[in-house]
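re the bet — no i am not wrong, look at it urself. input seq straight from the record:
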Amino acid sequence: MGYVLDLRKRVGHLPLVVAGAAMMAQNSTSKIALIYRTDNHCWGLPAGSTEPGETVQQTARRELKEETGLTVGDLTLIDVFSGPNMHYQYPNGDVIDSVTTLYRANTTGGELIQATDETSTAAFFDLDDLPSPLTPLTKWMLKGE
């Protein structure tokens, strides 16, 4: 997230429109990988902001690998989410209006890592039995709430 962090140094907490991608990485039993974020203490999809020169597909794969240790095969586009439900204020005061492309893919490799600089754990969950609390953006993308 270097690009957005660099912008933050210039604009502070002012709202930014941020393009990004999220991944519904499914294991062999169709459970999806979620991460527990250390900034807002919520579960969420592996996701992040697109870096300059990067496609949203590359963003989805990179964020998944960084946040879970997993790799995936072919990507299936689920939807592109934007608008009022994608407005979010981080605990540190930063505000974004996210335009997030959501993909689904089957895991093909890697080991599920338990902690990164942004997460404290990662686990697989059934779509009908998601953990709580979910990040507002994840809740909107997965449940339409």
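see?? Helices lie at 2-11, 56-68, 136-143. told u. also The CA atoms of residues 76 and 104 lie 5 Å apart. so pay up
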